[in-house]
Amino acid sequence: MSSVAGGYFAPKDSCPPKAGAFRKRVPNDSSMNVCTSFRRLYDRNDFPISIMHDAKGNKINWKVDIEKLDLHHYLPLFFSGLCETEEPYAFLARQGIHDLLDKGGNRILPVVPQLIIPIKRALNTRDPHVIAVTLKVLQHLVESADMVGEALVPYYRQILPIFNLFKNKNVNIGDKIYYSQQKRENIGDLIEETLEKFELTGGEDAFINIKYMIPTYESVLSRN
C-alpha cells in the first residue's frame, strides 16, 4: 500500500476482499449448544422416536401417540434440529417437525413464539440446504392450523432479513437447475413461494409488513 500526499491507495490491480454475505456461518459455542440440542437429546434417548428402515427409505417410528405429546416441550426441540446437516439427525428433526405439524392442530398456535429463535438460527447459518429445509418447514407451519400465519407476522423482522439477502439467488448451472427445481431446492423460488404463503395466511397486515422488509416483493393477490 502506498501513500500520496498523506493518503493511502491500494496497489494497482488490487480489489477489496469479498464481503462474505453468502458465506456459511458456523454458530459460536453458545449458539451451537442451542442449535444441536436436538442431537444431544436424541443421543440420550430423550425423544420417543426411532428410525425404521424399509424398501422405500427411512421413516420415523413414534413410540407414543403424537396427539398426546406436549408440543410446548417437543416442537421447539425438533425445530432446534433444523441446523443439523449430519444424518440421522437432520432427517429425524425434519421429518419429526412435519409429523408434529400434521398432527398438532390447534395446539400449534400457542407454541409459535418458542419457534422463532430456532428458525432464525437455522436461517442465519446461510447454508443453502438448511435454508431450503427451513423454508419448507415455514410453509408447512403457516398452513398447519388457523391463525398460525397471523401469529408469525410480528416476527417478520427477525426472520425476513435472510429472505431479502437470498431472494434473487437462484442456481443457474446447467442440469443442476432441473434437479434443484424437482427437489424444490432453488432458494429464490422457495423464498418467493414462502412469502406468498405468508401473505395468504398472515391476514390483512401481512403484505405491508413483508413489503417493508422486502421492498421488491409484489402481492400475490395483485397477480391473480
UniProtKB/TrEMBL annotation:
Gene Ontology MF terms: Hsp70 protein binding; Hsp90 protein binding
Domain of life: Eukaryota
Cited InterPro entries: ARM-type_fold, Parkin_co-regulated_protein
Residue runs in coiled coils: none
UniProt xrefs under PANTHER family: PARKIN COREGULATED GENE PROTEIN, PARKIN COREGULATED GENE PROTEIN PARK2 COREGULATED
Protein name: Uncharacterized protein
Organism, scientific name: Piromyces finnis
